[in-house]
């Protein structure tokens, strides 16, 4: 098959959640099909990786996406009644490249990775169109609107409302839509035919624990891109609302924030006792190695949190909020610990820092869980079936239930 893969960000190197998913998808498709990739390069450092991406593709188009012009286009789009997202990714160079392929290549399938690529995919003639929304970006904007103040709240709300309408329209226009969790699909089912919705999760690579260094002091850690608002909100809340109680109980403990491009609010956290902000590191996966406890105190979260899966794969006990646990069918209190308030999260972290046996049990159970249930080979087989038109739609859940109720973690940590 001739497959056109459209991505809003170059899927290499696979060093963050969306790029990780996109790269595994593209590399898997390239094993059996001829793949063309069109994507944007929003980080100048990633220009060096375009040639690497060509190893997997017949051809690659990767124009730079400059932030200021993109923001200008996005603002004009909002004023005209369209979405910020559509305007941000409207690029003449991208259009010209796709037009050249449109005239010379007959694509069997076009795949759009994320809502931003949906309009581009609908312009391309193809026998089958697949949209991988991953999660619903409109719900993130609406969550921002609820937590922001001033004009930002209004703008986020407008974008969230408009984008939700466009997401439903796009899903009805594509032959198949992929979501990363059942919770995301449930929100779309009232407006999108069930037979067009499919669930494909993310996988994880189990690291070799024998090469992990032994921590010399208690480290509580968070890994994530640190100019991403949900991550910034998470670490700021944890450092100010949770960490003082942890530090009082465990004076030698360190809260280490790992991730590139830390915003000023994050950098300022390093002024607090026991807080370290590393910025970018050569290998974010290995940065987890010294952690005794990994935290994911996300108050705004959609889809599946790769940072949680990677910590679990490294046999680290994870303390996380209910939003961060979405889409991970692990047993709360056994394979991770859920805590949604500052007091319960502090209690959970303190208990783990003070009890090595508990850390070991939860960490090993977490690793065993992802080894069984979060495997790339299984998820990519489902993905290929959707792209090739051979997969059955994901059935609606009989009962979503309350598997991640915060009360389930209490007895494990008190």
Word description of this protein:
The chain is of the alpha/beta class. Helix content is 44%, strand content 15%. It folds into two domains: 2-203 and 377-387, Rossmann fold (3-Layer(aba) Sandwich); 209-374, Glycogen Phosphorylase B (Rossmann fold), CATH 3.40.50.2000. Helix 7 packs antiparallel against helix 8 (151-173), helix 10 crosses helix 15 (342-354) and helix 13 (306-313) crosses helix 16 (356-373). Mean pLDDT is 90; it is low at 397-414.
Task: State the helix count.
Answer: 18
How many domain modules?
Answer: 2
State the strand order across the main sheet.
3-2-1-4-5-6-7
- Provide the helix percentage: 40-55%
Distance between the termini: 56 Å
| Parts with pLDDT < 50 across at least 5 consecutive residues | 397-414
Number of DSSP E strands: 13
Outline type: globular
Residue-averaged pLDDT, rounded? 90
By CATH, the architecture of the largest domain is named 3-Layer(aba) Sandwich
Structural class comes to: alpha/beta
β-sheet strand percentage: 5-15%
> Major sheet, described briefly?
7 strands, parallel
Give the name of the CATH superfamily of the largest domain. Answer: Glycogen Phosphorylase B
Q: Which radius of gyration do the C-alpha atoms yield?
A: 21 Å
Q: What is the highest CATH level, the class of the largest domain?
A: Alpha Beta
> Per CATH, what is the topology of the largest domain?
Rossmann fold
